[in-house]
Automatic annotation (TrEMBL):
<dbReference type="Pfam" id="PF12811">
    <property type="entry name" value="BaxI_1"/>
</dbReference>
<keyword id="KW-0472">Membrane</keyword>
<dbReference type="InterPro" id="IPR010539">
    <property type="entry name" value="BaxI_1-like"/>
</dbReference>
<feature type="transmembrane region" description="Helical">
    <location>
        <begin position="148"/>
        <end position="169"/>
    </location>
</feature>
<keyword id="KW-1133">Transmembrane helix</keyword>
<feature type="transmembrane region" description="Helical">
    <location>
        <begin position="36"/>
        <end position="54"/>
    </location>
</feature>
<feature type="transmembrane region" description="Helical">
    <location>
        <begin position="181"/>
        <end position="200"/>
    </location>
</feature>
<feature type="transmembrane region" description="Helical">
    <location>
        <begin position="115"/>
        <end position="136"/>
    </location>
</feature>
<keyword id="KW-0812">Transmembrane</keyword>
<feature type="transmembrane region" description="Helical">
    <location>
        <begin position="220"/>
        <end position="240"/>
    </location>
</feature>
<feature type="transmembrane region" description="Helical">
    <location>
        <begin position="61"/>
        <end position="81"/>
    </location>
</feature>
<feature type="transmembrane region" description="Helical">
    <location>
        <begin position="87"/>
        <end position="108"/>
    </location>
</feature>
<protein>
    <submittedName>
        <fullName>Bax inhibitor-1/YccA family protein</fullName>
    </submittedName>
</protein>
Length: 246
């Protein structure tokens, strides 16, 4: 219940109840799992296509990578502010990010053979481990836990934004790209925080279903979980590349 006790009017319980009663359908965990599975299939299909284009030496790879990244970012922003559109936009987001991930993964794998399979395995392994920890109550999404994880996530986001701006002026942040001890420790911390965000996603899904959130929230929750998985995969990929460079 605490997840929806927010100053944000979109997340207030009364809003969810009103929307749920409007069409008589509410969010369920099974429905969310089904939609998440669908989004994963779409993402992987797009990733395989983009990966295949790289292997063929196609000149379309970079447009697919940049187009997918930019398109995915725009779609994510729209979904965040217009949650009720998530049923239409979340699949498009999955396709766009799949094109981006497929191209990026192919580039990493060209430099470090086998790194993609390792990253995929570690990502899903981490997902399963965090789900078990959440379901068994070893890690609980308390208000303090949420505050710490969200603050740490915001801090990383600001750090990456600063790094992006500095890179425009040809200044690199060594922690992000360095394969030294501090660079690897930084990546391990980011991977850990990304993994802990999965707990917030699991809690959002469970609380949404318990409170009778509107049906479209299944798509929104699935989108949120997919965003976390993509972030986790990219950070694991970056960490493995650093370890391979040592």
């Amino acid at each position: 219940m605490a997840l929806f006790q927010s100053n944000n009017p979109v997340l207030k319980e009364s809003i969810f109840n009103k929307a749920a009663h409007a069409d008589g359908t509410t969010m369920t965990i099974r429905g969310t799992v089904n939609k998440m599975s669908f989004l994963l299939i779409m993402l992987m299909a797009a990733a395989v296509f983009s990966y295949g284009q790289f292997l063929k030496g196609s000149s379309n790879v970079l447009p697919l990578v940049f187009g997918g990244a930019i398109g995915g970012f725009i779609l994510a922003l729209v979904i965040i502010f217009k949650k009720e559109w998530s049923g239409y936009l979340a699949p498009a987001y999955a396709l766009a990010e799949g094109l981006f991930l497929g191209g990026i993964s192919a580039m990493f794998n060209a430099n470090y053979q086998g790194i993609v399979l390792q990253a995929v395995g570690l990502t899903f392994g981490t997902f399963i481990a965090m789900l078990v920890l959440y379901r068994t109550g070893v890690i609980r999404a308390t208000e303090r836990f949420k505050s710490i994880v969200m603050t740490a996530t915001l801090g990383i986001g600001i750090f990456y934004l600063i790094a992006f701006v500095l890179r425009l002026f040809h200044i690199d942040m060594p922690l992000i790209h360095s394969s030294g001890t501090f660079g690897i420790v930084f990546s391990l911390i980011v991977v850990a925080i990304a993994a802990l965000n999965l707990i917030l996603d699991f809690d959002m899904i469970e609380q949404g279903a318990a409170m009778g959130a509107p049906k479209y929230f299944e798509w929104y929750a699935s989108f949120g979980l997919l965003v976390t998985l993509i972030w986790l995969y990219l950070e694991i990929l970056r960490l493995l590349s650093k370890l391979n460079r040592r």
